[in-house]
Design a protein that fits this description.
The protein is mainly α. The chain has helices at residues 19-27, 31-39, 48-56, 59-69, 74-88, 94-99, 102-117, 121-138, 143-151, 154-168, 174-193, 205-216. It folds into 2 domains: 9-100, no CATH class; 119-222. The radius of gyration is 18 Å and the shape is globular.
Length: 231
């Protein structure tokens, strides 16, 4: 494979949103080049002003296109999710994120990487970023934004992390375990307190098992005929 062009390597102090780099993100057929281009926009997370400048340049649409195309590629997904994570930390960006379809893409990422995350810590990093992003959005004061998270599957995402990944993946690092517990619990608490979802601990053990088997375990199946729900 050809080397990554030098003009796509990140440059310190760059504060411009270059539309040529956005085109690379959306159209390049080389995932390494896409990953390098995404890294150039790490500076976006520094200030709210830069984030809104990125939105005005339709940067989110390019990132959504990139994620949809490279949904299977862990390196691209990690870098793109890290970029989106900076936006979810700013509540002023949440409405725009919902309008751009970010929740749909985040949930699609969850479905794509949930089974690999049961075995590979590097795949778990993607779910970590996704869950943290959704937890940030569910903390928004706007009821419609919180409702959108629930409608797109935030409850299943919470249960996947809290009741499947944490219990089944024995290769998680201490740091990953801490972050999964932190963001998984934060998401669940936001859903229960702010989104008026039924409290998980108020359900009977039987109801918990039934709901997990019906709504969550199929997320880890991925059309594998040998698949069995985690015990």
């Amino acid at each position: 494979m050809s080397p990554i062009p030098t003009d796509l390597k990140p440059k310190e102090g760059n504060i411009d949103v270059d539309t040529k780099d956005l085109q690379v993100i959306a159209t390049s057929l080389d995932p390494r080049v896409v990953t390098a281009a995404l890294k150039k926009f790490r500076f976006i997370a520094r200030t709210e002003t830069l984030q809104h400048r990125f939105i005005e340049a339709e940067g989110l649409l390019y990132v959504m296109t990139c994620l949809t195309r490279y949904m299977w590629n862990p390196a691209v997904c990690r870098e793109a999710c890290n970029l989106l994570g900076g936006f979810t930390a700013q509540q002023s960006c949440h409405a725009q994120l919902v309008r751009e379809g970010v929740l749909d893409v985040l949930f699609a990422l969850t479905l794509t990487h949930s089974k690999p995350a049961l075995e590979r810590p590097e795949e778990t990093e993607i779910l970590l970023t996704v869950v943290e992003a959704v937890a940030n959005i569910t903390a928004n004061e706007d009821m419609e934004i919180r409702k959108a998270c629930v409608d797109k599957g935030a409850e299943r995402m919470s249960a996947l992390v809290n009741d499947v990944i944490l219990k089944e993946n024995k290769q998680l690092t201490p740091s990953q375990i801490h972050r999964l517990k932190l963001n998984g619990n934060r998401l669940r608490q936001n859903l229960e307190k702010l989104c008026a979802c039924e409290k998980w601990n108020d359900r009977s053990k039987r109801d918990q098992r039934y709901w997990l088997k019906k709504e969550v375990f199929p997320m880890t199946k991925r059309d594998d005929p040998t698949w069995k729900p985690p015990k």
